[in-house]
Amino acid sequence: AVASKLAPNSADVNFLLGYVYLLKQDFRQAQSYLTKASTEDSRNVQALTLLGRVRLHEGDDIAARGTLEEAVATDPDYWIAHKFLAIAFLKQHEFDKARAQCELAIAKSKGAGASVDIILAEALANLGKTDEAITTLKDFLGTNPKDSQAGEARNLISVIKMHAATPAATTLTLTSPSVSNIDDTDLRLSIK
User: Fold this and answer.
1) CB burial class (10 A; 0-12, 13-18, 19+) of residue 5?
2) Residue 19 and residue 187 in contact, taking contact as beta carbons nearer than 8 Å
3) What torsion, rounded to 10 degrees, do the Cα atoms 110, 111, 116, 121 define?
4) Which pLDDT band, with edges at 50, 70 and 90, does 164 fall under?
């Protein structure tokens, strides 16, 4: 609070406070600080990405998508923005766009974006590419057997198989742990 009083218009201070409140799971405060950070520095891709992530968590998928599209436009190489934009597209049932954003995130992450595989698999399954989705998840499990999302990947394989076996199956929807759980590993790996 002292930092925000000393530098209320500092994009960096507001970004860090937004990040702290995200970790505390105080999403209202996080959104407030991240909005200030991105207003003060519209090129702050990390503030935009984190703001989009908070908006996804809060269920404001349309605002999240707009913010994340702005983040991707600001820095097309920032793979985490592509990851969360993929989630926004997934939530809006735009599966081709979700897949494309996943592929960009994976390519730009240079090996750090394994968590994107789960999102990619969900997009592929919704596009009717069941075998490709399951292969993606099995590859993820083969290289990341002890990852915190390994259980989610195994569960998703089962769900995809059941979903594929259901006649006239509807859209496959899951809650991505990338949004609902506060795991900041991707963000910490990318702080510039």
Assistant:
1) exposed
2) yes
3) 110
4) confident
The C-alpha R_g of the chain, in whole angstroms, comes to: 17
Helix axes 116-126, 95-109, angle to 10 degrees: 150
Residue 153 in tokens = 């990947």
Q: What is the DSSP string of 129-178?
A: -HHHHHHHHHHHHHH-TTSTTHHHHHHHHHHHHHHHHSTT--------HH
* Mean pLDDT confidence for 181-191: 50
Report which residue type is found at 40. Answer: E
Residue with tokens 């594929």: 164
Q: How far is 155 from 138, CA to CA, in rounded Å?
A: 11
Asked if 98 and 112 count as a contact pair (C-beta separation under 8 A), the reply is no
Angle formed by the axes of helices 79-91 and 116-126, to 10°? Answer: 30
What are the tokens at 116? 């994107």
How is residue 136 written in tokens?
A: 């993606």
> What is the number of alpha carbons within 13 Å of residue 23 lying toward its C-beta?
9
CA angle 42/17/34 to nearest 5° reads 30
Question: What are the tens digits of pLDDT across the range 70-120?
Answer: 999 999 999 999 999 999 999 999 999 999 999 999 999 988 888 899 999
Residue 20 CB neighbours (<10 A): 13
